[in-house]
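note to self — DONT lose this again. spent like an hour looking for the file last time. sequence + predicted structure for the chain T wanted, 257 res
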Amino acid sequence: MKRNKILASVSTVALALGALATFGGNHVDAATKSITPALPYRYKTDTAYFLDKSTSAHYKGVWNSATNAWKKNGFAWKAAANHSKTTLSSYSDNSASGLNVAGYDKVQYNKTTGKIISSEVRLNRAAFKKYGYNTAERTNVAEHELGHALGLDHNLKGSVSVMNPANRYYSIQGCDVKGMKKIYSTVASFDSVSDNAGDIVTVVNYTPAVKSAVTAVKTSYNAKTKSLTITGKAKGASKVATFLFEPLLRHQVDACG
């Protein structure tokens, strides 16, 4: 009787483990385009400045990690001192519709030349908190939005790509680097073309929030070691790491006894 109560309680805990999962392998539901597609806009070269308007150390760290990840892969994001046409920040929208969005990039560009006029890149703190995004997953979303900012479109649904349309679990992949390098294989010529008001268009690229999903949860209790092993499958990965809940188990035995 005690054991049934313990397992029922811990099974409930197991269903909330998505944010703690260790994701490995490349288990996906669809193919991945070998070269991530491009959007109709870009910077002049593979170097662009940004202004981080974050007010918290945590999100400054997220943006720093994301820009450095792109820098290591060939696109040189550089921090501006006080002004840039590309701004990075976060916001909090916990409305029913707002929680559907993990982040977005709002871009103004010249439809004739593809020249970026301005770019507002933002992350939704409320969605991250609601759905248990850890720091690495927040950084993945930041890398995704920066990918849009530099001119990358989405890869396929379910793809192993930072530009997966609903990315939470993937950082920059080889297909994304190839897509970025294809865009910036040449230097754009924008200087000779004026930015007429009629040529300026605005687009917003949204990244939907992804709820963590742990399924096929199994538990195994070792009476000798008084430890409980929980395993299962997670969306976007081949397996969930093994967790031992000996302190929790003891607490539950005392509570049920």
